[in-house]
Design brief:
7% helix, three-stranded antiparallel sheet, mainly beta
């Protein structure tokens, strides 16, 4: 049984101030009718936890996050007008500002909990037959 949830814990070697989070995610091409490969879907909701050690899936489901970000659907990310045609790495990336800024100062560990994806009905946040495939870059100061 596949699960759309992803919990990514990033410890830092020293305290940092985070201004934004850059998320690059991919989803299957809806025109691809190849049924032999697994279907992937981009994440929809990101819950961020700052300086909360020993988190696991059970804990993050019940704990109030430091911040919640609703990620844009992949159809809005892959717009060639917002990226350089010569740099395919920039197409599809979106910087999400982290607010309020005071909550993201002196960060020694951050947990990123992707709880659902765009292939699921909105608000479901449970199990699905879809997989997430995403690459995250943290922008720190």
């Amino acid at each position: 049984d596949e699960d759309p949830e992803l919990l990514l814990i990033v410890p830092f070697s020293e305290a940092v101030t985070m201004k934004s989070l850059c998320v690059l995610s991919y989803a299957d091409d809806p025109n691809n009718r190849n049924t032999t490969t697994a279907v992937t879907a981009a994440p929809r909701t990101l819950r961020i936890y700052v300086n909360r050690p020993n988190l696991d899936f059970e804990t993050v489901r019940d704990l109030a996050p430091t911040s919640t970000i609703t990620l844009v659907p992949p159809s809005h990310q892959f717009d060639p007008e917002h990226g350089s045609p010569d740099d395919s790495d920039t197409i599809g990336t979106i910087d999400y500002p982290l607010r309020p800024a005071g909550r993201f100062q002196n960060v020694s560990e951050i947990a990123l909990y992707f709880c659902d994806n765009h292939a699921m009905p909105e608000g479901s946040g449970g199990s699905s037959d879809m997989d997430d495939s995403d690459e995250d870059r943290l922008m720190t100061e």
